[in-house]
Every structure is written in C-alpha cells, then in structure tokens.
Write a structure and sequence with these properties.
The structure is a homodimer of 341-residue chains.
Chain A lengths: L3 H17 L5 H7 L6 H13 L3 E2 L8 E2 L1 H11 L7 H12 L5 H16 L2 E5 L8 E8 L4 E8 L4 E7 L6 H15 L4 H19 L3 H12 L7 E4 L13 H12 L1 H8 L6 E5 L11 E10 L2 E11 L4 H23 L1
Antiparallel strand pairs in A: 1-2, 3-7, 3-10, 4-5, 5-6, 8-9, 9-10
Chain A binds a DNA duplex (30 and 30 nucleotides) through α2 and α3.
Chain lengths: 341, 341
DNA sequence: CGTTAGCACTCAGCTAGATCGAGTGCTAAT
DNA sequence: ATTAGCACTCGATCTAGCTGAGTGCTAACG
C-alpha cells in the first residue's frame, strides 16, 4: 500500500511525463508546488517507488519515468477524470445532430472525430450483425449466369454478393425462390438462418424447383455469416507526432499491424463491456507493446453493438481519452437507438 | 540531342541509383563494364549532363543523382521494359483464377497484390458507375419512419442508403412506388435517372400517392450520384522502407495525404488512357513531390472503367512497375469483361 | 582531337575527446 | 523524519581531426 505522499509523487510524475515525454526529476516535482517537499525527500520516495516497480530509470542520472505497472496503478487508483471540454462536447453533439444516410457514414465519421480530438489513432468497430434478424432478401439477376444477392437486416444493414445462377433455373424460378425465402426467413435471427434454410426451406423448395441442392448451396454462401464487423480507422499517422515514435521502423511495425485486419480483430476480441484500458504489454499483439489501447463498447437495449477505441503511446493522456470515449460511446449508443427506433 | 555515349552513361546512372539510392560516381560506372571509358571521360560527360539539367550533385565531391528531368528523359527514351517475372505473372494469374463474390474483393485484392509485388504503395480506383444502367431498385422498410433504398446496377454494383419515409405513406404505397420505379427506371443509364425521375415518374406518381414532391425529393437523394469511385489502398507503409524516407515528418506528410480522399482524387483526376508516369513535381499534390506515380487505366469495350496506380519514390523501378501495371491492367480488364459478361 | 592519367581540392561522415548539466545516492546536520 | 550538501554518473552536445569517395582541371598520350 502506498502512502499518501507516494501517491502524490507518482501522480505528479505520470502527469508530468505525459505532458513532456521527458524523464521527470525530483527537483521539478518539488518546484511544482503541489508536493511540498524538498527534492531529497522526493528522491527517497522515488527510489522506493522504483523498488516497487512503479517507476523506472532510463539510465543512472536521468529522471524517472512510469513503468507499465506504474501506469496501471495510476489508471486504477490515481487518475482524475477531468470530463471533456466544452469545445469537444460541442463538436460531438453537433456531429450527431447531422443527418446521415448510412450507418457506415456515422461510424466512419465518429472515428475521424475521435482521432481529431485526441491526436491519437482511433479504431471503431461497426455494429455487429449479431442478434439482428433478416428483414428482406432479394436476388437480382445481372445476366444469364449471375445474380446479386442482397440481404437487409432489421438494423438497416445491407450486405450483398454476386452469386452464380445454377443452370436450368429460369427467371420465374428465381422469383419463386425469393418469395419463398422472404416468407420463411423474414425476421429470423441470423444465427438461425442456416438451420431454417436446411430444415424448412429445403423441402419446400424441392416441390417446384429441380436441382435444389445446388441452389441451397448457393444460398448458403450468400447468407453465410459475413458477421465480421467492419473496421474504421482514422488518424493512423498521428502516432508519428509522438516523440518516442520518431523511428521509422517502430512506426512501420505499428502501421503494418493496423493495416492487417486479423491483428486488429485479435486486439479487440473478447473485450468486456464498458471502458477497458490495455497498457503496453497487456495488449495481445506484440507490435503495439509500446502503445496503450483504451476501448469502450456502445450498446443498444443492453446488447453490445460494437466498440470504439483509441490507440496511443503508453504515455497517453488516459484521463482525457477515457472521458472522451465514455462520452462518445454513450452518444453513439443514443444515436443508434434513434436509428434503430 | 544526347550522344550515344551520354545516353549510356545516363542510363547507367539512373539504373545504379535506383538500385543503391546512393549518388553514383564516375569510377563505379567505369567499372561496370558496359561503359568502357575511363572515369575521367565519364566525368566530363557527367558535367555536360548536369549542365543539361539531367543530373544533379547533392554536394561537391559527391556522385551524381538523376534530376526529375533526368528521370523523365530516362522514362521517355532510355527505359528497357524487362517484362515481368515468371513468379509475378503466376501470382496475378492465379489470383484472377480465384472465384470472388464481390467486385470490391477483386479490386481490393488486386491492390494488395500490386503492393506486395512492388514493395511500393498501390492505389486502385474501383470501376466507376459511369455509363452503367440501373438494374433494380428496392425499398425495404425498416421501421415506421425509415427504409433502406437499394440500387443495383447493370454491373452488379450495389449501393444503399437509409431514407426517411415521409409521413402518411403506407406499406402499399411503398410497393406501388417500387413497382413504378422499376418499370420506369430499369435499364436507364444513371446519367439520365434524375431527369426521367422528374419527367416521367413525377406525373405518374401523383396519380395514386399524395405528397409526391416530398417522395420525389427523397428518391432523388437516394439515387443521387454516388459516382465517386471507391479507393483501395495497400502497402501505404512501404514508403518507409525507402532510405530517402527515413524521416518521420516526410512520411507523415505523405501518409496523411493518402488518408485524404479528396487529395487522392485530385491526383487521379483527368488521367489519360493507358500508362502514365508522373515524376516528382509533375504531380498535382505537393506532399508527394518527392514521389512518382505510375498509373494505368483498365477498360471494358473501349470504355475506361478505373485506374490502378503505384506510388513510390522518384527513385523507383520504373521499368518493373510499368511492365507490371501494364500486365495487371489488361488482366483486370479481362476479368471485368468476364464479370460483366 | 578525343581520351586518359595524375593531382590538388572538397566535403559528408565518422571518431575521439572535452565539456556541460540534469539528476542521482549517500551522509551528516537540523 | 526531513533536508542541505556533495561527489558522482552519464547522456547530450560540441569541436577537431581524420578518412575516403568523388570531383575539376591540366597536361600528356595515341
């Protein structure tokens, strides 16, 4: 357990280091005013904090910087959430007041705003189709051999893909199929679509169309879970403004990771509800072990829809980002609620 | 007009510099074998070439590097197109043999391959809807106040957006509208959709639905030209592997530009058919004045569909990239032709 | 006359040494 | 328990000197 004085000193060091990116010395803390002890006393405490693993020294005769454990303690026990500024709040509010035609726009633009307000990189996962139901199915023939299959979900999400039309299927057959599918599949949750397709639709289909196994297979691919949420990235290059990322190779590593969808998904998988802070090596992807990721989920009627996140250096402004993500996730949830009605 | 010897020397310098990224000296050229003159002779020629503005010297006592004008001369007169390697050809061919469900996949993946094969950044503009016709229109109500409008083009392109349902419009009205629109708009080129909407559909619509001006307006936004071609980027970070881009600020400038759609469009606007090479300051966007952009259009039945491009340092391997883009654009055109049938 | 050998000169890049100063740890005084 | 004082450490910065790749010029050569 840390003493009050140790907590004050740790707070001061983390705050200073977040601002300046330079190792913090005992003298500068003493001069700040809020820790009214001489540099010598502070030095002693700093030595203790280092022994506890909360601080580290880049080299003898340099000041101290927080270790990952130090940041963790800071985030868990010392952080003061300042709330977000008038300006920022206004910007978010007026953004959500705008009229937008596609949820892709909303989510994409939300990512942009987050990166602008923080000067870090923002990563936003679009709403998952998880637990939504199928609203409408359509097959539009493009030419003799292929058609576009379109799926609309209850949330207004649209997915489409081109499918081959099996030989021997006429235009009238297609209409029959579409009608049947809409009758059988409307309002069926996506998780169940596959089984309903086999159990109910299969038999029915065989009555008036030949070669129905082939069709079923095509439909299945068309309806196959494209459940992967879409990823929106913004401000990826912001990391380069950080003094600790002046090295091109380090940066390349990180940006490469961000370009790779699978790595990103790995980062975001199985995140618990609410706000999460992953500091440095707490992240499951090695390339960003010098970064911290703060995430917040947004939900609708208790059901988590997606995640918004900020990626910055471990020396990031945790207080500001947490406040901002909290605010943003709630407003985004409100917006989605309005959207889904 | 350059003498044969000057051309040989310029070629040697450009080739060497492209490989090594180091200023090329007279001695190293002399030793290469293909220019059988002594360093002193070569030095004299180099001085002449510099006077002509084709070479420059980073500082006295360094070797020469090609100027933009030098690269231009090289590309216009000296370049040897080696054709592309067995390996690369195989990779592209097998890629196009794959089955893909959406053109977004095709084009996106093409971008990935280009960046992998070149180690530069690839930029691909998806097929423009220009000159395609409307194939199918659908309105799917999501709840009482909003619906998803879906447009399918003759090329299998799907666009969608959420629209508000004006008050007082019932489900049956919607069906009527959809039927009417499909009857009137099917196979109408997109450029004409707007006018047809006003002239033919407007009157017809007013017969059985009230408040039709409002609906028309909604439809117009729904059908409004979303003609902006989609941009696919890949390997944006590859620029960082180039020794002349070891500086984070330079890189940030370029990557920021790549994140900005408008800037990218500016780069690609009004590109003539076929292969184009834009060297350094020939590019209209200032941030990439130290880069070269090579582009190739791909077309279907004489109609240009889109553009594929490679962005690299001015010191890029023009011969290889030109060959590759040529090959890729032709295969992409073939693929699209098959796709459109 | 074109070509080449020779030579003095230039200059970025590297290395070694000197200096500086922010910051520490320890000890002794308060 | 706190603090003043002091010796010590070590990265950062600066300078001077050296090195070597490369040049331009001149004179000799075939």
């Amino acid at each position: 357990m840390l003493s009050e004085r140790q907590r004050m000193i740790l707070t001061a060091i983390v705050d200073d280091y977040i601002r300046s990116a330079e190792p913090v010395g005992s003298r500068s803390i003493s001069k700040r005013g809020d820790v009214a002890y001489s540099p010598a006393t502070i030095r002693n405490e700093m030595a203790d904090l280092e022994e506890l693993g909360l601080l580290e020294q880049p080299h003898t005769s340099a000041g101290r910087i927080p270790s990952n454990k130090g940041y963790r303690y800071y985030v868990d026990h010392l952080i003061r959430l300042g709330g977000i500024g008038e300006q920022d709040m206004l910007k978010i509010r007026s953004f959500f007041a705008e009229k937008m035609n596609m949820w892709e726009e909303v989510v994409g633009h939300a990512a942009t705003i987050l990166s602008q307000l923080t000067n870090y990189t923002s990563i936003v996962l679009g709403p998952e189709m998880f637990n939504t139901t199928l609203k409408h199915f359509q097959l539009v023939p493009i030419n003799e051999t292929s058609a576009v299959a379109i799926i609309v979900t209850s949330t207004g999400h649209v997915e489409h893909r081109t499918v081959a039309i099996p030989e021997g299927i006429g235009m009238d057959d297609i209409q029959k199929i579409v009608n049947l599918l809409n009758a059988k599949l409307a309002n069926v949750p996506f998780i169940k679509v596959k089984s309903v397709l086999h159990s109910e639709v299969g038999k029915e289909l065989s009555r008036f169309v030949d070669r129905c196994e082939h069709i079923l297979q095509v439909l299945e691919t068309a309806l196959a879970e494209n459940q992967e949420p879409k990823i929106f990235l913004s401000g990826a290059t912001n990391i380069m403004t950080q003094p600790e990322f002046k090295d091109v190779d380090k940066v390349k590593n990180i940006l490469d990771t961000l370009e790779e969808t699978s790595k990103l998904m790995q980062l975001f998988q199985a995140l618990p509800e609410g706000i999460q802070v992953r500091i440095g090596t707490e992240n499951s992807v090695e390339a960003i072990n010098q970064c911290s990721l703060i995430t917040a989920t947004y939900s609708y009627e208790g059901q988590s829809l997606g995640t918004i996140g900020i990626l910055g250096p471990t020396r990031m402004d945790y207080g500001k980002v947490i406040s901002l993500l909290d605010f943003m996730s709630k407003d985004l949830a409100l917006f989605m609620a309005r959207w889904y009605k």
